[in-house]
Amino acid sequence: MPIRLEVWGDYALFTRPEMKTERVTYDVMTPSAARGILEAIFWHPGLHWRVDRIHVLNPIRFDNIRRNEVDSIISTSKIRSMAEGRGDGGAIYASESIQQRSSTVLRDVRYVIDAHFELERGKLSPNDSAAKFQSIFMRRAAKGQCFHHPYFGTREFPVDFRLWAGSDEPVGFERRHRDLGYMLYDFDYRDPFHPKPLFFRAALDDGVMDVTSAEVRS
């Protein structure tokens, strides 16, 4: 059963993994980021979200900002020592590990996510069903409820969301074909200790990225 969710925010950062030091965003929200928003609203171990299309409603605009990041955090041994009363009470983040880095981000973003979910029968209770999960998601999305607040790429850029109102098809911001190159699709978690990134050749057609027939490769 399809889900259609409208999401928007002031900024977004969907980091391109090939950029090492400075963070540079993809032109459009990735399917994995869209899945993360859906899971923030409703998640169940027997439910898997599948993103079908992402409608880009606002023109693609970029901004350059500077953000404070850290390259290291407190070690587990120090945390254990502090918990046992043997630590010095030092900061979690060392001041020398804080670095200011430039980021290329998207601004004034608005998307509509078309998605559906699939069920894994081995992780469902006898009372679980697709209709039940559909009803729960629709109710939570309509009320603005979520397990944790969704974000566009990083927690600094929160997402506002609502169910798409009306029966009209969302209208993309442009009427042409735009090749976006290779984009992160999602991660393969079959080996939970070594998740494998998956990519696909992304494109916008009339402002819509259709991933239903994407050829995914590692």
TrEMBL record:
Gene3D superfamilies: 3.30.70.2660. Its EC number is 3.1.-.-. The keyword Protein biosynthesis does not apply. The keyword tRNA-binding does not apply. It is an enzyme of class 3 (hydrolase). GO terms for biological process: defense response to virus; maintenance of CRISPR repeat elements. Keywords: Antiviral defense, Endonuclease, Hydrolase, Nuclease, RNA-binding. GO terms for molecular function: endonuclease activity; hydrolase activity; RNA binding. InterPro entries: CRISPR-assoc_prot_Cas5, CRISPR-assoc_prot_Cas5_N, CRISPR-assoc_prot_Cas5d. It comes from the Bacteria. CRISPR (clustered regularly interspaced short palindromic repeat) is an adaptive immune system that provides protection against mobile genetic elements (viruses, transposable elements and conjugative plasmids). CRISPR clusters contain spacers, sequences complementary to antecedent mobile elements, and target invading nucleic acids. CRISPR clusters are transcribed and processed into CRISPR RNA (crRNA). Belongs to the CRISPR-associated protein Cas5 family. Subtype I-C/Dvulg subfamily. This is pre-crRNA processing endonuclease. It comes from Bifidobacterium stellenboschense. The lineage of its organism: Bacteria, Bacillati, Actinomycetota, Actinomycetes, Bifidobacteriales.
